[in-house]
Amino acid sequence: MAADYLAHVEEETGREQRLRDHLTGVAELSGGFAAAFGEEAAGRALGMYHDIGKYSRAFQDYLRADEVEKKKRRGRIDHSTAGAQEFWKLRSGAGETRPMRQLRQTMALMMASCVAGHHGGIPNMGTNVDGDGEGTLAARLKKSELPDYSTYQGEVPAPVLPMSDLARQVGASPLPSMVYTRMLFSCLVDADFLDTERFMAGGDVGREGFPSMGTLLERLTKSLQAKFAAPKTQEARQKLDTPINRKRGELLRESIAAGKAAAGNLYRMTVPTGGGKTISSLAFALHYAVHAKKTRRRIIYVIPYTSIIEQNAAVFRELLGADSVVEHHQNVAYDDTADSDMNRRRLATENWDAPLIVTTSVQFFESLFSNRPSKCRKLHNLAESIVIFDEAQMLPLNYLRPSMAAIEELVRRYDCTAVLCTATQPPLEQFFSADMRPIEICPAVMENAALFRRTHIELCGEPMTEEAIARELASYEQVLCIVNVKKTAQRLFDLLAEEDGVYHLSTNLYPVHREKVLEEIRKRLREGKTCRVISTSLVEAGVDLDFPAVYREIHGLDSIVQAAGRCNREGLIKTGGTVKVFSLEKITSSAQRPAGLTKIVARKYGADLTSPVAITRYFRELYDTSGDAWLDKKGIMKKTAEYAFSDIAKDFRIIEDRTRSIFIPETEDACALLGRLERGERSRALLRQAGRYMVQVYHGTASSPFALLSAQGKLRMIDGELAVLTDLSAYDANKGLLSNVGEGEGLFC
């Protein structure tokens, strides 16, 4: 009987979900998701056919087996190839033209890829010579030894291959058709997760209830009115009435006007450091979402560093309310499932079904090029969204060509609005097609960019010793020095350690420790006390610090501009702050090329080094000298032409996995977390909390910090995975994990 065919059995209660009900439920959800980009029919078809392999007697026996038997059989019954083969059977139609036959075959392949990969990930396309066991789509489409699933025909209507306008557009073009496949795949796997989740939970799990875009705009308007238009105290009014804040107000008004106009889908916001782009970009996005002719369902902020994410998310929560902001990165944990709002946000990290998502560049782009269900399920929610790329100059250089091609595809075909937001706008338009040119949100601000200039930049001609730099730093009451390498930061700190108010910042300090140090630094700056800070580049972007003088070891011009943004931030020094760019006697290998390009640009533009024309020249030189060897280091575009979904997912890694985490049990809170871990407790929330007490170090060679600490007997392993520092003398109260255990460059630290 039809009722005998099951999709799932809930183990604790024995409740059964009929297979027909599951297929229908997934089809409805998947079709609804795909409707956002005009592919409802394709989404429905995928939902109805993704699990038809479960109609086999072998799978039904597995579902009804006891737990011991289930463990023996788990993963051994192939139920996902069946639907793929059914779609592949539709690859040809009688009497069709050659272009239509080619399109039909491509569509059949894309649909088959989605179904074949809905558990294990979209496979490589492969070739016709691939045989059984190779795991490619080509091999699976030829697979003959499948359990008999033919009884599906009694419950499921015959499949139809949708042939939409969008499918015709992407056709046989590799990258567009791969993006299209991932978007459909996303609809299917998210629908599959959600329907299964709903059944297992016995009903609604609390994913709904976020405020609308209109509600968020109302909240923002009220918050801005209270913050800027009607300050409550005389002190607040005086603070607002400064030249720099008046300019920030102009930027905000321009951003709101551009958002209301909603005139395009590709924008850039070029705002000098300290110009207020966080609030202005949010205002633009919310006004755009409300006033756009087509629906805009959410805003996604893509940010390079977690330190910036936490700061920006705090601003958004203050303006919009905590119930509207979902952070998706390694340092956030929504661990209270009893709290409905907390649980709602935790669930939204899985598929980005929330009005405001704040995430990392790593999470965004690696998901966009992934083949895995868990990473891809969020992708369909990029359709009808506004995606803001904060600090766009930091888009991954080694993956710039495929990243920009993917952004163009989202904008062109999925009603996605992209905003490239930065203080140092690189000429990224060269990576877009000729018919796609970004609209500047605040052209008047850029025409008067010099009004935001609050510093004088001096480029030293001759290399300096660390001792000479230390002597110069000691002559300032308040100064920030940014260097390229963590060892250099520790050595400079040692040279200044006897002075008053000296601080060290790098990723050798675990996150909680860094936050404490940053708060001490901010307090001393506010109180006008002596404050000398030695840091790696982690303070350059998004960290709200304001020094009268900044020293920066030479690197790329974008890094120098970001460093200058920590100097005279509020414009209170009328004559301008001092930024000194110096070279050490030895330049690290990773800094040599960008430093060389900076010197080339400096020879031409001199004191006008941070002008828009100088910055544009720097990036053009960077892109021209890089070539495809750097701009597509892993050959992603070539693999795209081969439809190598699995290979691309493995190769597209913005951060190479060359680090290991070391837990630092230095505080009572850290020791309490360690106790829970040692007792065998494991959860995503617990591991995220523990991550705030971890330092990332290089590993993989005999001389790496991890290997040296291990060889010295200073590490203890838990479950062979988690490393715990047992000798706390290796962790300094000021410098963090000591550099004498090994060396690593601090470019992203």
Concise overview:
The protein has 749 residues and is of the alpha/beta class.
CATH class of the largest domain, named Mainly Alpha
In what range is the share of β-strand residues? 5-15%
Instruction: Write the CATH fold name of the largest domain.
Output: Hypothetical protein af1432
- Continuous helix count: 30
Helix content: 40-55%
Shape, please?
globular
Second CATH tier, the architecture of the largest domain: Orthogonal Bundle
Q: Give the overall average pLDDT.
A: 87
Q: Which residue ranges are poorly predicted, with pLDDT under 50 across at least 5 consecutive positions?
A: 331-344, 742-749
Largest sheet: 7 strands, parallel
> Order of strands in the sheet with the most strands?
5-6-4-7-8-3-9
Strands, total number:
21
Alpha-carbon Rg, integer:
28 Å
Number of domains: 4
| First-to-last CA distance | 62 Å
Which structural category fits the helices and strands?
A: alpha/beta
